[in-house]
Design brief:
The protein contains 2 helices and 8 strands, in the order E-E-E-E-E-E-E-E-H-H. The chain is α+β, with helices and mostly antiparallel strands and 226 residues long. It folds into 2 domains: 14-129, Jelly Rolls (Sandwich), CATH 2.60.120.10; 138-216, no CATH class.
Length: 226
């Protein structure tokens, strides 16, 4: 694929969306406040490029300006608010990016709030970011997701015995100080794990497509994309 370059002054949108990461530039107007939420799986990085923004993460607040970054861990409730009289532009990334990507609450969980029903695809602004919708019928997408789940299960079953054997041998090599054996066994473990992680990625992509299409009614057109 060709090398793509994105500019925060012109590309205010999602520009990469995979199961591993979603990255985008986001512009918010003075006084604008994003909806408070958390992520069941994702961890979110924020980097302010222009303007100032107050971040509330896990109950703590800080105002960040250009060149400053902060981080919201999985399950940490967070919210952003533009401060000052000029717009704010930031880069943000969520990783991994598995549907439902955002978790909304009835109230602060520390005060007894409960998770709301999942919403799917709320990160995508229609006709804004150029990220294509999933191709195929819902039945085809579901079949693809099931095939990916079966493939992952098969790979795990095929490599579990080898992983256990190599893990025990690695423990012995480390205990005996045999660095060369430890390196070879580490390579062998990676050879078993690599196809698993690839299969997990395929399953994540297939599931995201199913959730996006099947969960269409959960999207709220009035919600600001994040």
């Amino acid at each position: 694929m060709p090398l793509e370059v994105f500019d925060y002054r012109t590309d205010v949108r999602n520009f990469v969306v995979t199961p591993e990461i979603r990255g985008r530039f986001l512009r918010m107007e003075p006084g604008q406040v994003a909806a408070r939420h958390s992520h069941d799986l994702g961890q979110e990085m924020f980097l302010v490029l222009e303007g100032q923004c107050e971040f509330e993460i896990a109950g703590e607040r800080a105002v960040l300006g250009p060149g400053q970054a902060c981080f919201a861990r999985r399950d940490e409730l967070h919210q952003v608010r533009v401060v000052g009289d000029v717009p704010m532009t930031m880069y943000l990334s969520v990783t991994p990016h598995i549907e439902p990507t955002h978790t909304h609450w009835t109230a602060d969980p520390a005060e007894g709030g409960q998770k709301q029903r999942p919403r799917y695809g709320t990160w995508k602004a229609p006709k804004q970011d150029g990220i294509p919708d999933p191709e195929g019928t819902i039945a085809e997408l579901i079949d693809r997701q099931l095939a990916a789940a079966r493939a992952l299960n098969q790979i795990v079953q095929q490599t579990t015995a080898s992983q256990e054997q190599n893990a025990l041998a690695l423990k012995r090599a480390v205990a005996e100080g045999d660095q060369e054996a430890a390196r070879e066994l580490t390579d062998a473990l990676w050879a078993d794990l690599y196809p698993i992680f690839r299969a997990i990625s395929e399953l994540g992509a297939a599931w995201n497509d199913v959730a996006f299409v099947a969960g269409e009614s959960s999207r709220r057109p009035s919600a600001a994309p994040r």
